[in-house]
User: Fold this.
Amino acid sequence: VQQVLFKNPNEPPVVFHWLPVVGSTMTYGIDPFKFFFDCQAKYGDVYTFILLGRKVTVYLGSKGNQFILNGKLKDINAEEIYSVLTTPVFGKDVVYDVPIAKFMEQKKFIKSGLQSGALPTYVPLMQDEARDFIKGDLRFKGSCGTVQIPKVMAQITIFTASRCLQGIEVRRKLDNTFADLYHALDDGFQPINFMLPWFPLPQNRRRDIAQKKMTQIYADIIKARRAGAEKDCEDMLWSLMGSVYKDGTPMPDSEIAHMMIALLMAGQHSSSVTSSWIMLHLAAQPEIMEELYQEQLSVLGDASSPFTYEDIQKLPLVTNVIRETLRLHPPIHSILRKVKNPLPIEGTSWVVPPSHVLLAAPATMGKSDEYFPNADKWDPHRWEAMADPADQEKEKMDYGYGLVSTGADSTYLPFGAGRHRCIGEQFAYVQLTVVVTVMVREFKLKNVEGKSGVVATDYSSLFSRPMEPAFVQWESR
Ligand code: HEM
Assistant:
């Protein structure tokens, strides 16, 4: 009744719900993709739902991605949505805590440490980290066993990423205090912190203490480096320490520290959950793992010598395994923006008012049979017959941090599009390729007795991840 009486013909249809404030929070939260598709079938590509009292307008399809991800700065805003979650974790004066023009300059600073020039130097470091981890981890003692794969991949991810991005000093501290601080921060980086930022959760106090301590750790490392510590390799910290804003101001040490925390959080989850999904699929389809092994043998000549950045460019099946996994298991299912001005939706009489939040879900296209036949099937080989996704993203624009793909038209956008597009894509591909290559040469994986396929998705954290427990059986090669 409420919805019939208050339906506004000038606004997109509202998803039916019984409870006013709760709205569709539960159905969206439990399985956002099912929710998006069910609503699309009833209401079309544009509809509004209630998420804990907020009106969220979803706009699906290429037009929706274009509308939201490439919206004008004056109309659409990311920082007003995300900063309640990110500022207490990252710290002040970085990312969504600063005006967008300043953040775009900061993105430019980090881009240089994350992209092609630095990547070749990262490959041997990551390889050593991944191999040393496997050799030293008690869970891999003996010739076969069973492991909770997400736990293993989370550790391999943090060790491989931190060595290159966070620097050797942080890598050394990872075995003790730093890891605890990381977990305390991570506990404060949950949907509940986003939805109810004012709620005095007990973990928020631990988060705030950890944020201060971690900032201090970085500040001390920066100080030691500035006082003459030897620069024996490139890493993100060195790169930020040499960064200067357009107005001539060097990036202050506190901002560098906060940016390092931001990178730690941004990169860790998405790469870690992706590598877990890859391992789960390889365990469910061991024939693909065998093909990956054969690819190494035929391209690299053997599967035991160290490999280089150039070598991993020649492993198309690994690339397709990553692509296919990101299609089926995109770590980020919803991209949110605050509406700043009334926004008419072309071809309709609807206007999205400034009180609404906009939600883009480009990943729905990746899960649709219309664009990816037999979309539910994990089949890395499907990409052999398809254009490279990078070629689909033709339009480029400079938002202040170099040319960025605005190509919101693509049916495959796991890294987003427009000014907020991911700058970690190349780094993530290199990291995932190294980790997969090392795992493939060390192990054969299979599902535990009596299980088939892969576990369901747990959407309860900010990044979609495998539902735990998620065990696989391993056997040394
Ligand atoms: C932005 C996905 C890895 C840093 C984004 C966005 C997506 C995404 C979808 C757009 C968010 C939005 O528009 O609101 C992924 C995936 C990854 C990955 C799927 C790995 C598989 C990384 C890594 C880093 C990173 C490794 C850094 C070390 C960033 C940054 C942004 C971003 C700085 C920009 C946020 C903005 O401009 O608002 N990522 N990411 N990402 N990502 Fe990633």
About this structure: The pocket of protoporphyrin IX containing FE is lined by residues 78, 165, 263, 266-267, 270-271, 274, 326, 331-332, 335, 414-416, 420-424, 427-428 (CB under 6 Å).
